[in-house]
């Protein structure tokens, strides 16, 4: 299945990775390929990727796995290694890994030599349904997540569900959280799928991608509709930062963030009260939350550097119903 974005295609198909060389050769004429990946993916897929891309001369940069690598220091180190390996402005970079690898590599591609072509090859469920779609790239700062970045289109996104076979249950669940979010803001059928703990198929992956694709095509630069994708993320990012990106993974953090968003929506009269228990139960059943839940007052200071803040207030996402997200504005003092 091919999905068309404004400037690139998304290929969603099992074993599509085996056709990677053909896709690359359709627009790239050089022998050298540069790959950025993390140590976990490299351990699992190093030999496989070399066999798939055996017609190219590969230069591989390996970073430590985890959000702690999405920093200025790692960004500079990756650039230094790529330059030492001889990368030039017309060379192609492959981002092979989860969201951290994709965001970091995309930012390297956007900025090194003022722009290099790159391909996203997401290997986690979370990155397949979320971070690889929409052209947002960037790194974290000590003051918050994704505060330095750009909008930069890849040449291609290859989404192959075969990579999901090597994910741990906890890592898999992080993608489930983003899919539940997608269902809550725009696709009731997708949300209802997760009321049972079934394994996702290509169908559900496509449904989640289509939610994001539709929103991004309407609002590519995050000025209006695209903000809906941040449901649960204001407080979720605050939780990740508060615990130094170690205790809670992204999907878990935004799941607690979604509960807080429901509470705020109920308080503002935007969200029907009965939604809370249904959503809470679904998140808990999928292994994403457990008591005690976070309280708004414990995170107020941590949300002040959220990138959704304007000078007067910040944009906040609530639900008016399952499958219907709404954008509102809130001042911290109103919480």
Describe the structure.
The chain is built from 11 helices and 11 strands. The chain has 335 residues and is α/β, with parallel strands linked by helices. The chain folds into 2 domains: 2-165, Rossmann fold (3-Layer(aba) Sandwich), CATH 3.40.50.1970; 173-334, Dehydroquinate synthase-like, alpha domain (Up-down Bundle).
Features:
single chain; Rossmann fold; Dehydroquinate synthase-like, alpha domain; seven-stranded mixed β-sheet; two-stranded antiparallel sheet
Reconstruct the topology from this structure.
Blueprint: E1 2-4, E2 9-12, H1 20-25, E3 32-38, H2 39-52, E4 57-63, H3 72-84, E5 92-97, H4 99-111, E6 118-122, H5 125-131, E7 136-141, E8 144-151, E9 156-159, H6 169-186, H7 188-193, H8 202-218, H9 233-242, H10 250-267, H11 275-285, E10 314-321, E11 324-330
Parallel strand pairs: 2-9, 3-4, 3-5, 5-6, 6-9
Antiparallel strand pairs: 1-2, 7-8, 10-11
Helix pairs in contact: 3-4, 5-6, 5-8, 6-8, 6-10, 9-10, 10-11
